[in-house]
Design goal:
Strand order of the largest sheet: 5-4-7-8-9
CATH topology of the largest domain: D-amino Acid Aminotransferase, Chain A, domain 1
Structural class: alpha+beta
Largest sheet: 5 strands, mixed
Distance between the termini: 20 Å
Number of helices: 8
Number of strands: 16
Number of domains: 2
Shape: globular
Helix content: 10-25%
Strand content: 25-35%
Order of helices and strands: HHEEEEEEHEHHEHEEHEEEEHEE
């Protein structure tokens, strides 16, 4: 199962996901999978590691140590790091596996300030490249833009960069998260606390300790900072019965399994079929003919089986 989720994670970060966010989150919880990103063998190390955020699905699961926190939206795009040396924009990397990313400096030079007033420090700025949610598969559109080889095509993409953090050698010289965001805003960036994100896709809320010294004192796991979490809304579906599985040939010629369901109403639409992706996905959910399953309409359009219900 780890191999399947590794592949799904890799394709997600490349902008060609095979699972919806709800499906991936459900499987990751079931199999305790917490690897994030994918390893890039021909990349460049980030100046500071880009940690992922631990996901929680209920406010009661927020860490009790988060008393004085900053809450911001979690944009659903492609994470990027920027490096400024003596105020000059010097490097931009995709997130990759959080340790190493791919060089996208030329592309990002069209989206970010060329110079910031921090000429006595080397600064890493992290943020998200996002596309309007009016664009179909907006996250894939934004992530895919960073993989384009044609610069003219990249410049035509409708994307923006929104900054949400900055790291320097002495972390406490930016004493508070709110101060960090103020610094980024004055440097000319769109910032997560002031950007009008109403037209952009979001994927929950981020709760982050305001005090940088407290944040650092809380430390990190191998994957996550202990001073910040992502509160996500768990997808809720409708339970019905799996009647059969048939195989169909798609437009691309790929043969894929489809679930035949006992018809059920989901948000005003009668659903009797759902995608199953491939045999690995069927095995991962431990599906059997006649079992009960929870079904959602991903993006309010595509029916998907989220899990088996025993």
């Amino acid at each position: 199962m780890k191999d399947f989720l590794d592949r799904a994670s890799k394709l997600y970060y490349e902008g060609t996901p095979i699972l919806s966010d709800a499906e991936f989150d459900s499987l990751a919880r079931k199999y305790n999978y917490n690897a994030v990103g994918h390893t890039i063998t021909d990349g460049i190390p980030h100046l500071f590691k880009m940690y992922s955020l631990q996901k929680v699905f209920d406010k009661k699961d927020l860490p009790s140590n988060i008393d004085d926190y900053v809450c911001t939206p979690k944009l659903d795009g492609a994470a990027v790091s920027l490096v400024y040396v003596k105020g000059q924009f010097a490097l931009a990397l995709t997130r990759g596996d959080g340790n190493v990313g791919r060089d996208i400096t030329e592309k990002m030079s069209y989206l970010v300030p060329k110079y910031i007033k921090k000429d006595d420090e080397t600064v890493q700025i992290t943020g998200e490249v996002v596309a309007p949610k009016s664009i179909p598969n907006a996250r894939n559109y934004a992530s895919g833009a960073l993989n384009l080889k044609d610069m003219e095509e990249f410049r035509q993409r409708c994307i923006v960069f929104v900054a949400y953090d900055a790291q320097i050698k002495e972390p406490f010289s930016l004493w508070y998260k709110e101060g960090t965001l103020t610094f980024l805003r004055h440097a000319g960036f769109n910032t997560i606390d002031s950007f009008d994100y109403s037209d952009y896709p979001t994927d929950g809320l981020v709760y982050r300790v305001n005090s940088c010294s407290q944040y650092e004192a809380l430390g990190y796991t191998a994957h996550h900072p202990r001073g910040a979490v992502a509160l996500k809304e768990a997808a809720e579906g409708i339970v019905t019965k799996l009647l059969d599985v048939v195989w169909q040939v798609g437009k691309s010629g790929v043969v894929s399994p489809v679930a035949i369901l006992q018809p059920v109403d989901i948000n005003g639409a009668t659903v009797s079929r759902a995608t199953l992706h491939n045999i690995q996905y069927i095995e991962s959910l431990e599906l059997e003919i006649g079992c009960s399953v929870e079904v959602i309409r991903s993006g309010e359009i595509i029916p998907r089986i989220l899990r088996r219900v025993d």
